[in-house]
Design goal:
Blueprint: H1 6-27, E1 36-44, H2 53-71, E2 75-84, H3 85-92, H4 107-123, H5 141-160, H6 175-182, E3 190-193, H7 207-210, E4 218-222, E5 231-236, H8 238-241, H9 245-251, H10 258-278, H11 299-305, E6 338-339
Parallel strand pairs: 1-2, 1-3, 3-5
Antiparallel strand pairs: 4-5, 4-6
């Protein structure tokens, strides 16, 4: 082989330089990815224990730590606003667009609900469910759910007062109306409220919520393309601090306050982050897992049962790759709410 000419030498040197640069880039330590930021707002109803800016911020900070330790999520929750809940609804969801589901379901809705519940139970056995049902009622799921929901409505009217539970204001405590608020153009990714939110029998088949009479601690809504994370989440402190007898019985302890209330609220936030950012479904089989919603309202005990390094089946670094379809209820629709 003869001597290389100048052009060939330059070409070889150029190739070697590009190879060396590529190797350096490959071996160089990568800068950590920036945390995913969620914009939060606190929406308070009058006459109920409020959530201060300091409490909301403390819960948000605790939730970011839990998300990192239990779900391998690097997030930052920024509390941007504290506003009156009624004013927020008046601005974003006028009365004509509110969905009031406090009336009893129709016979047709009850039959449909029975079919959905039976299909759900065939697919997803739930341990401990008999403890929430009086003897002899397991064969009449739909009727039992409706009875509990109507009893919950009556209890809320007694607890909140007649004015708060008259139309159109009572719709502010229905999940359907919250769904519309969460989809509105305010840009909030996480809503934190002190008011009760009811999951109606017509809303789906989240059995843990239905057997409590519909009272929930949070919900995630997907399929909001305009949002940074493709959806939005909401958590409520009502289950944590309400003095209402039915809520206290399901909670199993006096109203939470101080650090206990903040810790439980942080766990609710983290659970919703699992839904919103990882598309993790609710489950009823993983022991000591933050994605396993309690059948009652013992959120403090539930939050304490989840410890690092988290559930091996839910933690992203350990769970097998699977479909990203968020199906926390029998429906596989990506817009189906996933209540706590």
């Amino acid at each position: 082989m003869g001597p290389l000419n100048g052009a060939t030498r330059r070409a070889l040197l150029g190739s070697a330089s590009r190879f060396a640069l590529a190797l350096l880039l490959l071996l160089a330590p990568r800068a950590p990815a920036a945390p995913r930021v969620l914009e939060a707002a606190v929406l308070c109803f009058p006459g109920l224990p409020s959530i201060s800016a300091a409490e909301a911020t403390s819960a948000a900070e605790a939730a970011t730590q839990m998300a990192r330790e239990l779900l391998d999520l690097d997030v930052r929750i920024v509390v941007r606003a504290i506003v009156g809940a009624e004013a927020a609804f008046d601005r974003h969801v006028p009365p004509a667009r509110r969905l009031d589901r406090t009336a009893p379901p129709t016979d047709q809705e009850t039959r449909k609900m029975r079919a959905v519940l039976e299909a759900f139970l065939l697919r997803t056995p739930v341990r401990g469910i008999d403890a929430l049902l009086p003897p002899g009622t397991a064969s009449r799921w739909a009727e039992q759910v409706v009875e509990r929901y109507l009893a919950r409505n009556a209890a809320l009217q007694r607890a909140l007062g007649h004015d708060a539970m008259t139309s159109p204001r009572r719709a502010l405590h229905c999940l359907g109306t919250w769904d519309r608020l969460m989809r509105a153009g305010h840009g909030w990714d996480l809503l934190v409220t002190n008011g009760p939110v009811l999951y109606a029998p017509q809303d789906g088949a989240a059995l843990h919520a239905l057997l409590r009479g519909g009272i929930i601690g949070g919900v995630t809504i997907w399929n909001i393309p305009s949002r940074t994370h493709g959806g939005a989440a909401m958590v409520s402190s009502y289950c944590l601090d309400s003095t209402e007898a039915g809520v206290a019985e399901l909670r199993g302890r006096p109203p939470l306050a101080g650090k206990e209330r903040v810790d439980a609220l942080a766990a609710l936030m983290t659970h919703e982050l699992g839904h919103l950012l990882l598309k993790l479904p609710d489950n009823y089989r993983h022991a000591n897992c933050l994605m396993h919603p309690p059948l009652g309202l013992a959120y403090l005990e539930w939050s304490r049962s989840a410890r690092p390094p988290g559930c091996a089946e839910c933690r992203p670094a350990r769970r097998p790759v699977q479909s990203s379809s968020p199906s926390s209820t029998p429906s596989s629709s990506s817009s189906t709410p996933s209540p706590r």
